[in-house]
Amino acid sequence: MIERETFRLVNHRLAHFDSVAIVGPRQAGKSTLARLIAAEHGDKTRYLDLESPSDRRLLDDPESYFSAYADHLIILDEVQRAPEIFQVLRGQIDLRRRLDGKGGKFLILGSASMDLLRQSSESLAGRISYVEMTPLTLREIVNDKKNDDENEQILIDSLWRKGGFPESYTREDEEASLQWRLDFIQTYLERDVPQFGLQVSTDQLARFWRMLANDQGELFNAQRYARSLGVSGHTIARYLDILEKLLLIRTLAPWSVNRGKRLVKSPRPFVRDSGILHALLNLQTMDALRSHAVSGKSWEGFVIENLISASNGKVRPFFYRTSAGAEADLVLEFPSGHCWAIEVKLSSSPTVDRGFHNAADDITAVRRILVHKGKDCFPMRGGIEAMTLHRAMDEISVAIDA
Hints:
The chain is of the alpha/beta class and 402 residues long. Helix content is 45%, strand content 16%. It has an 8-stranded mixed beta sheet with strand order 7-6-8-9-10-11-13-12, with helices on both faces. Strands 2-3-4-1-5 form a 5-stranded parallel beta sheet, covered by helices on one side. Strand 3 (73-77), helix 5 (86-97) and strand 4 (106-110) form a beta-alpha-beta unit. The mean pLDDT is 91.
């Protein structure tokens, strides 16, 4: 089993917070991680899968149930099936706080953002810590294999092609991996979207999702999608919001502190998991991926997701672009307020144009990093640090912990 970095993070949060919520798309590994944590806590754990009718019945009177196990770690899996639980949790957390350190904790798992789980921002403020669990990251698979540089390149290609959902990545058969992802997409559209009470045409949402895949990382133009689908711009904005709250799309906002420049204001949506992106485009093999027009943007999205994951949610990601041609693929804003400018290149022999230097100057970047697909790290002119994705992830982690 591949060790997940989220495991250590969640255990740390549980030691310091009354409750922890793990959010992430279905099949990212949340339940597996929660069961490992439950095993560590032994008999003082109650695990409830709220997709199970028998477990749901145990919470017919949630206050009584939680009170009966006030000294236990209670794990609530797929909590979106019972959003009314949030109305009870505040009082239960406060009750456990009064137990002189003997009160148990809550570990909550949900397959969407907390906004979509209908949890009001006030109800658990100061009582809960949020952890987003992504599919497998590059660092997790490389650390698991502990291979040399050559084999690391093979692992990178495999993870990029098949994506990080464990059920997709671990299938050696390429056709079986692709079929799993196609089924995953269909399940989300037919089951999960209606489950959240989202009144939307799943056929239209599917078409929109595929259109986004073809436009991976491009500036978002709602009216163009609206014309293609025959709906309003408001409906298109709602479709994007749905996919974003289901944690299937990441919309990078433009960095806009510098008001003295004519900045691009449209966001850039990315299909977050590269394997899902490739399934939406029916790209099964590496040859098919390399020859497709989306390959560069696919690699860019793959890199962006891995870099953001390395920060444990402690950086704010943006992109930067001006009408004059200054551009940075990714801007990471750290808690200190300092920014890093990051350029992403699919080539193993990359070059950087003047537009990146201008962007780094505009945002007063303290570091200028070029992430490329090669296996070497080296300095470049203008203070640019060329490095592998794995190295860049480690650099972000070090900066966060400093």
